[in-house]
Amino acid sequence: MSDSSSQLDLSQLAVDRSGPTKKTAIQVRRSWFTKYVLPLGILVGFLSLFGWAARDSFLPAQSITITPVVVSRAEVKQEGTPLFQAAGWIEPRPTPVMASALAAGVIEELLVIEGQHVKQGEPVARLIDADARLALAEARAAHALQVAEVNRAEATLVAAKTNFDQPTELQATLAEAGARLNETEVAISNLPYAIETARARLQLATENVRRKELAGQAISGRALREARADLAAAKNTLAELVAREPKLEAQAKSLREKRDALDAQLRLLTNETRAVAEAKANLAAAQAKLDQTRLRVEAMELQLERMIVRSPIEGCVLSLDARPGQWLSGVGSSSSQGSTAVVGLYDPESLQIRVDVRLEDVPQVQIGQPAQIETAALAAPIEGEVISVTTFADIQKNTLQVKVAISAPPAVIKPEMLGKVTFLAPRSPVVKEEPGDSPLKLFVPQTLVSRGEGSASVWVVDLTAGIAKQKAVEVGRGATESGLVEITNGLQPTDKLIVSGRESVVEGTRVRVSGEDRTLMGGGWNRGTTSPETRTAQANP
């Protein structure tokens, strides 16, 4: 044992650390790989994946619309066969009618009771009308006063037109001015003779005074003074006549200008024209105010009329929504206080039943589908027809409301009565199933089928590849009433048919779906299905 241990060479286990080892080289290569190659590879892979996913956005594609294949499982039931039942409540169709107050006021009296039959326009309530009557009297008084104003304006206009047609006052003024001018001109023409006469008298008076002064004491002093007074008078008269001439000339000129102005005024009739225009304007304003007062009277008469609330339809009283003494705001009132509804009405000839249909039965409901309605008030069912499928479901009851019109409702039927509706099998575009046929039926719009020599085909879209494909199909029976044809071979229930854009596509054309077109599906298929489900078909008797 000791001999073998002495022969071991422990120097072979020593490690030479003087130079680089293989492990160090491996670590360097691994560090370069993880720092550069691996991230670059991940980035390239991510970009490739992103490019592949977004290839439809970069590659050109034709925009198309599609429609699904109509799939029906032929559970053959004859038209009129009961499908299911549901309960509901009878109500007016489409809604109750409200008799509302058109004017604000306080209810004085209700004139109807619930269930009473009323005619259209029959009074159902009366409001307190004292204020309305006073307002009407005031409006009528204002109207009468304005009628008098219009009569006055008409009289003024008549006078202005008469004065315009026959301006006698202006003519008289013109004639007077002409006469005064003539008098002045005559005075001017006679003035030289009067001056000559005054000069002769002055000469005689001068001679008379000279002779009496020469006579001396032979004549009395009084005679001399009288002679001298006559001489002074003759001088004054001559001086006055001489001074009158320029005044008469100025007066004649003024009268001539006045005559010419009056003549021009008579020809133009400016004041008379203005008077006629003003009279017409005043009459128009008075008539406008008269119209306002007349409208005010009509408004007050309407206000008084609206103090009586009338029925808008012929029917029965459904509810009394107001009480005597209650304030009504009136239709169109800006006040938010009070209501307008007085009486609720309905037409007994127009009723419907509001039915809660289970969601699993909703696919069997169609607009126009026949139904039978039963109530405790009737010994036999009455006919009805589906007219509406609402859009709001009751989550708690798991139902959807359907409206069924009651055909010729009996008089005993009243709103809010409970009823039970039996939905019957409607007329369907699917034809009768022959023995040996597959229960799964595929239908497509006839316009989408391209026919050739002994062959038919349709264009479908491969949604996975995003391309258009043409499939050869076998067409079954003739078209239904809804324009659908049965495809017996060549299509799958999940296929999507190309509607718009199929004229310009070829095999393999890249396409992009822009929407779904359901307009080619016939009536009753507008809620079309894309997966097999039970539907009702008509069995021709």
TrEMBL record:
Classification via SUPFAM superfamilies: HlyD-like secretion proteins (SSF111369)
Transmembrane segments: 36-54
Keywords assigned: Coiled coil, Membrane, Transmembrane, Transmembrane helix
Localization (cell): Cell envelope
Coiled coil: 195-310
Principal location listed in the UniProt entry: other
Biased composition annotated in UniProt, kind: Polar residues: 527-541
Chain intervals for the UniProt region annotation (Disordered): 517-541
Keyword Transmembrane helix (UniProt): yes
Cross-referenced InterPro entries: UPF0194_transport (IPR050465)
This protein's record includes keyword Membrane: yes
Domain of life: Bacteria
GO cellular component annotations of the record: cell envelope
Listed name of the protein: HlyD family efflux transporter periplasmic adaptor subunit
